[in-house]
Amino acid sequence: MAVAQVLRSEWTKIRSVSSTVWTLSVALVVTVALGVLISWLTRREWGEMPARDRLTFDPTFISFAGMSLGQLAMIVFGVLVVSTEYSTGMIRTSLAAVPQRGVFYASKIAVATVPAFVVSLVTAFASFLLGQAVLGPHRAALGDEGVLRAVVGGALYMTLIAVFSMGVAAMLRSPMLALGVLMPFFFLLSPILGAVSATKKVGRYLPDQAGSRIMQVVTVGDDVPYGPWGGLGIMALWCAAALAGGYLLLKRRDA
Amino acid sequence: MIALEGLTKRYGEKVAVNNLTFEVRPGIVTGFLGPNGAGKSTTMRMILGLDHPTSGAVRIEGRRYAELRDPLRTIGALLDANANHGGRSAYHHLLCLAQSNGLPERRVREVLDVVGLSAVARKKAKGFSMGMGQRLGIAAALLGDPRILMFDEPVNGLDPEGIHWIRTLMQRLAAEGRTVFVSSHLMSEMALTAEHLVVIGQGRLLADLSMADFIQRNSRAYVRVRTPERERFLDVLRSAGLTAMETGGTLELDGVAAEQVGELAARHGLVLHELSPQQASLEEAFMRLTAESVEYHAHSDTPPAGERAPWGADWKKG
Lengths: 255, 318
Hints:
The structure holds two protein chains of two kinds.
Chain A: H1 3-15, H2 18-45, H3 51-55, H4 59-63, H5 67-88, H6 90-97, H7 101-135, H8 147-172, H9 175-195, H10 200-203, H11 207-212, H12 228-252
Helix pairs in contact in A: 1-7, 2-5, 2-7, 5-6, 5-7, 5-8, 5-9, 7-8, 8-9, 8-12
Chain B: E1 2-11, E2 14-24, E3 29-33, H1 40-47, E4 55-60, E5 75-78, H2 90-100, H3 105-114, H4 130-142, E6 148-152, H5 160-175, E7 179-184, H6 187-193, E8 196-201, E9 204-210, H7 211-218, E10 221-226, H8 230-239, E11 244-247, E12 250-254, H9 258-267, E13 274-279, H10 282-297, H11 313-317
Parallel strand pairs in B: 3-7, 3-8, 5-6, 6-7
Antiparallel strand pairs in B: 1-2, 1-4, 8-9, 10-12, 10-13, 11-12
Helix pairs in contact in B: 2-3, 3-4
């Protein structure tokens, strides 16, 4: 089984369903639009902001504010790529054609990660550039220290969200179940754990909180025990665990 | 050639497939027959390496499925007509399968033509009727021009024209020297297509024989009689050493020719309203075969073989 054949096949699969285009488009549009809106509101409210907030203001991070919502579309993308194999019954056809399940799985994840990364990169740069344009006098520049890292990091963050979702979907198989777990997790549970002081220290190690550290440029006065790349590393470990779990289950289960 | 050796699948306590050993040979259509829930689909999934056997093994042309290089070139299967992504076009569905096995794009157009779906190749599969879905599944099976073809209940949901088409296709494939293995729960369907039969019931092998042998062994010939003088007729039979089985308003006589019965009746001046030689259908023979297995191995409360239990009543108990 030549891996190149399976990669081509998976690419055909992903480009021939409309969900690929609409999930990735929604991720881009929502993230950028919400980021621009929040940047614009911030600029308008600048005068009423407390001095302390003005001093620690992070124009780069604020332009990524849309990601909290846009990442949900990325989750849908990751979930659908994997779980529609199961919900449609395609998995049996696929595994009869490619019985080497490891090759099948790795190819699918790899092929889906590429468009996710490209869209994430466009999204991150668009969010940053448009957000800064709206922020006007309070803006950051791409050449400022840590800014380019934050923008590229934002793209990696979004991509890893999709990858994590693929792993979880491979474990759970059902799209409804996977979305039912991931959506509340990222949209409700993680923010709540991060906001309550008792659980804050645990919440930091959740994939999205750890990963989003890389988008912050100004980190004055917080006590987070890891740096930007450390945070992204933690998120990558979560992804690796989810992917490994998906692989083991795929290997063992009847299709 | 497909070879099963002691193939067994257990789901917890339940044994879905029980120690199946048989071979499917090239050049003929082999029917895989069994009541619903007998384990046919599970067996087929294990042949394709989709389900892991609890024990035993399957060899495809002497190799394990996972060892096949580009398996679609060796074995093509139709398991489920809906085993495709409804949002993908027929063309792209076949294209991604072709690419995974290094088959040229030309094959996609060829098989679409063979199954008659060229006109709707760019349409999404979710708009397909059951019959079109079945044709798409068959196109996928034919894609790699494989030596072995396997179809699970291929006539399900097809119209008469489609059923005729698929029968002809299977026979043509077998005539080309390929191995054709096709499952069904309908004996009548198999009688028209299969040359060899593998019958299972409750996961166990019940019969592995040629269709001709099956017909010879299992078809029961009898004479049906209707008469207004029932009591007197039975007396006459008794004195002639014959017995009759009563079913509804008619009598059935085994092991005697219609001529003999007619002459006997004439000698005693009996009025007959019907006298006809009958052949029990293969469907009945098949039912008896599977019912026996169920009764013998699992249930003591099932009616004895040959009794007119409603069609399929015994299966439901499994």
